[in-house]
Amino acid sequence: MPNSNKTFLRALNGETLPVPPIWLMRQAGRYLPEYRATRAEAGSFLDLCYNPDLACEVTLQPLRRYDFDAAILFSDILVIPKALGQHLAFKQGEGPQLEPIRDASGLGRLSIDGIHASLGPIYETVSKLSDAIPDHTALIGFAGGPWTVATYMVEGKGSKDFANIRRFAYGDPKGFDQLIDIVVEATTQYLLKQVEAGAECIQLFETWGGVLSENGFKRWVIEPTKKIVASLRAVHPDLPIIGFPRGAGLHMIDFKQQTGVTAVGLDSGVPLKWVAENLQKLGPVQGNLDPMYLITGGDEMIDETRRILETLKNGPFIFNLGHGITPETSPDNVDKLVKFIRSQ
Ligand SMILES: Cc1c2[nH]c(c1CCC(=O)O)Cc1[nH]c(c(CCC(=O)O)c1C)Cc1[nH]c(c(CCC(=O)O)c1C)Cc1[nH]c(c(C)c1CCC(=O)O)C2
């Protein structure tokens, strides 16, 4: 049963609360000077991800400032390809770089055998966090959705058109299924360990789900997510799981009903009246302030926040952004946002 102290878990359990719980995607990050200092101390972003003491520290930093209702483990979705044996580097200013796997002949380079040795420091971070966070704060573990993780594995970096992965998936669907199956298996094992170490909720970030065709979305977003949810629930029947299928539009209803996720994360483009009348009737929703409003601040940010609160107030709701917070955000605007929501 959810600890009644933790409003975040209560909302996930279906309660409609007068003031919604709040956390922000990428709440630990470069917009905070104390994050930049700890990252410099660690050496690099990846060194920070694999250093349990410092990863724990940066997870706690936004809680100290804003007392968010949930903490999210500090790590990255790309630790899975790395654990499977794919070389990963983060180049300053360029984002992630992996040795791309462009077709099924590259799958032999991946192995599931060593994943826990590679991911061990992350389990240690979760366990430290579980002891360190305040009693009223929930601890979120996470992984990338299999399709999104695969986009980086196949493209080798961020992409604008995802041409390589769509060519692989549409041209050799059976071969591509094998890649997705490997990612599903690794992700399931990884998340089970996070829950064992103390994660109370899991979020699956399917950031690039929206680039797929209709059948592609069913086969490579809905089906793999359903498998992960079923495997986690076989061990932890009550585990809350949030799916964030960014850009999924009308697929969100099938996504919610067919995968069995507890809640759906909304990107900023989703019409909220439609959400209130359709999706929120099926379970809790989370979102969806455009992170750019945290840069502009001002009355526009408050007006947009008020619209979101007003439209989703009649059902279970968690306040969040529609995508991750950006480095240019002013910490004062985050403060203003949180104070406004809590003053309602
Ligand atoms: C696609 C994706 C990635 N990582 C993630 C996603 C899915 C969500 C989304 O779309 O934002 C998820 C992620 N990445 C990070 C977290 C930590 C937890 C949190 O505070 O939300 C989470 C949940 C830390 C991070 N992951 C990254 C940073 C910035 C690294 C730095 O400090 O230099 C952080 C704090 C780097 C990263 N990691 C990734 C990219 C493309 C980049 C480079 C872009 C960028 O620099 O912002 C892959």
UniProtKB/TrEMBL annotation:
Transmembrane segments: none annotated. Keywords: Cytoplasm, Decarboxylase, Lyase, Porphyrin biosynthesis. It is found in: Cytoplasm. Pathway: Porphyrin-containing compound metabolism; protoporphyrin-IX biosynthesis; coproporphyrinogen-III from 5-aminolevulinate: step 4/4. Substrate binds at R26, Q27, A28, G29, R30, D76, Y152, T207, H323. Pfam families: URO-D. The record marks D76 as: Transition state stabilizer. Its EC number is 4.1.1.37. Residues 21-30, 140-156 form the Uroporphyrinogen decarboxylase (URO-D) domain. Signal peptide: none annotated. GO terms for molecular function: uroporphyrinogen decarboxylase activity. GO terms for biological process: protoporphyrinogen IX biosynthetic process from glutamate. It catalyses: uroporphyrinogen III + 4 H(+) = coproporphyrinogen III + 4 CO2. PANTHER family: METHYLTETRAHYDROFOLATE:HOMOCYSTEINE METHYLTRANSFERASE RELATED, UROPORPHYRINOGEN DECARBOXYLASE. HAMAP family: URO_D (MF_00218). Belongs to the uroporphyrinogen decarboxylase family. Homodimer. This is Uroporphyrinogen decarboxylase. It comes from Thalassospira lohafexi. The lineage of its organism: Bacteria, Pseudomonadati, Pseudomonadota, Alphaproteobacteria, Rhodospirillales.
